[in-house]
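Dear Dr. H.,

I hope your travels went smoothly. While you were away I took the liberty of generating a structure for the chain from your last submission, since the lab meeting agenda had it listed for discussion. I wanted you to have the full record in hand beforehand rather than looking at slides cold. The sequence, exactly as received, is reproduced here:
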Amino acid sequence: MTADPDAFRSVRAWPFEEAAKVADRLAKSGKEEAQGDVLFETGYGPSGLPHIGTFGEVARTTWVRRAFERMTGRPTRLLAFSDDMDGLRKVPDNVPNKAMLAGHLGKPLTAIPDPFGTHDSFGAHNNARLRAFLDAFGFAYEFASSTDYYRAGRFDAALLRMAALHDRVRDVILPTLGPERRATYSPFLPIHPETGVVMQVPMEEVRPEDDLLVWTDPETGRRHGTRITGGHCKAQWKADWALRWFALGVDYEMSGKDLIDSVKLSSAICRVLGGEPPATFTYELFLDEKGQKISKSKGNGLTIEEWLRYAPPESLAQFMFGAPGRAKRLHFDVIPRAVDEYLANLEKLKAQPDPANPAFHIHDGGSNDPGSPIPFAMLLNLASVVNAEEPGMLWGFIRRYAPDLTPESHPLLARLAEGAVAYYRDFVLPTKHHRAPTPVERAALEDLLHTLRALDAASDAEAIQNAVYEIGKRHPFPGLRDWFACLYQVLLGQQEGPRFGGFVALYGIPGTIGLVESALARTGEAAA
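The corresponding predicted structure, in token form, is as follows:
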């Protein structure tokens, strides 16, 4: 790493822009020369399981963290913080033993039995899933449990300070609440000493000098005194976020667009406590194929398991890297483009370690991966043409195209071949349709047939592409795009495809001649 900030401040890549914000914040707050690590944080609500958004947030935070290290030379830490002391508000849909969970509503997740029967608590189960999820992608992080931090006293001093400033903290939140909620709001949630439920009740007395909260159980009418420290209470959501920033000295955290107001309020509370809120970044939420916001309850999104069925995790990272501040469709049809964008960036990275290249961030500066000399889109078209049922059918053509390529020498290509077959089977095959050529297209295809028969069997992709290009210019197409659309729709049965010369080189000239002959023999509906 280099300690020269000027070397990276001019890089036009958002992780370095975010890293500069962190460096500027440290300089402004006087922490620039302080000892110790700079703390990056990402939060996790463990009432559900890790999902594709979890990957995106941790990956993006990791890229900013690495950019900051390169920019400043300072050591950093990434804290993956689980809010596992939150009360369970509703029973999730995707768990067993729902009736059992329903009997524990309102209790901290770490105080509820594990419905899966594998861990000490529901919170512990989901925390283990989170760690396994992050470990599977090789993220470097430290795990933190809210329950452990509260019980170990990590937040005690901050809690007592919040108690001393109770009214000022309330003044930040109250304007955002309705009249009824405003009358009962407190930033403190005591844990009921008998039921274990996280109580949302008004505080009758807040006595930091006695380490005490006084409140009344609305069901029994019994008055209780609860210690502020030692894990006997926790903070409300926005106050809890601010408390964590203040107590731990968090320097950077990103969050989704739906939390913009929470970031503002938590930042204000952090300042009331006497701290400086972290540098923050708001990323946009994902949309489905219809442009509607993805909702876990609706199930209209794409899961990470589904993405990884068709493509490697680096392609998902490529998708997450691009324009995080802009809403993007997250659906199956974005996968092929993300894969090929990643492959192109990987090749550029091997030629030059450019910090503006997404692959630079995905691979932490460099990679020796041989990549794939064959684009994913071309593998998809090959799978479509040969009606591939398993990757071995593709490898016969791959080895003829480049005899030195093997699954062992190019594991990424092997992974892409597997994904191409699965993607073809699930998405291409059900919609595959070869239309008949129009009269203009038929004449051009006959020209293509004669050209292919005259070509040397050893012609490379560029020579074939040039020949196909010249054919398109010889015939009265509105534009060359229409000629290539004909090749994809009439020969391959798809709306679009890869560079056609490369496809012919991979599939073989004799095989392509057969495709053209079949197309010329086809009758039926042609394009309008």
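Two observations you may find useful: The mean pLDDT is 93. Residues 196 and 466 are 74 Å apart (CA to CA).

With kind regards,
E. W.
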